[in-house]
Design a protein that fits this description.
122 residues; mainly beta; 52% strand
């Protein structure tokens, strides 16, 4: 079982910034897309941003121009820089990665982190 280690959540005032980080184990064979999703109270989980192994990025319209996703393929990490935070960004943020654990398996499996809480006070 692959565990994704998230860090960086917390409490911030509206207009402030936070940086989330997520690390996959160094022992995995290959990682395809990595990304961040979020779930606010009473709402469904939604995509925030994703980045492919080739650095192609995709953002939710609600965060474009404020959030930046990046990854370090050598360290199996993905980061989410969140600027100009709004109260509506308050949610649990989940790291996601599509991982191929071994050269013996041709499949990429979807893994999730446990989530990190981001609270933006107005």
């Amino acid at each position: 079982q692959v565990q994704l280690a998230e860090s960086g959540g917390g409490l911030v005032q509206a207009g402030g910034s936070l940086r989330l980080s997520c690390a996959a184990p160094g022992s995995v064979f290959s990682i395809n897309t990595m990304g961040w999703y979020r779930q606010a109270p009473g709402k469904q989980r939604e995509l925030v941003a994703t980045v492919t192994s080739g650095d192609n990025t995709n953002y939710a319209d609600s965060v474009k121009g404020r959030f930046t996703i990046s990854r370090d393929n050598a360290k199996n990490t993905v980061h989410l820089q969140m600027n100009s935070l709004k109260s509506e960004d308050t949610a649990v943020y989940y790291c996601n990665a599509k991982i191929r654990q071994s050269p013996l398996s041709p499949y990429f499996i979807n893994y999730w982190g446990e989530g990190t809480l981001v609270t933006v006070s107005s």
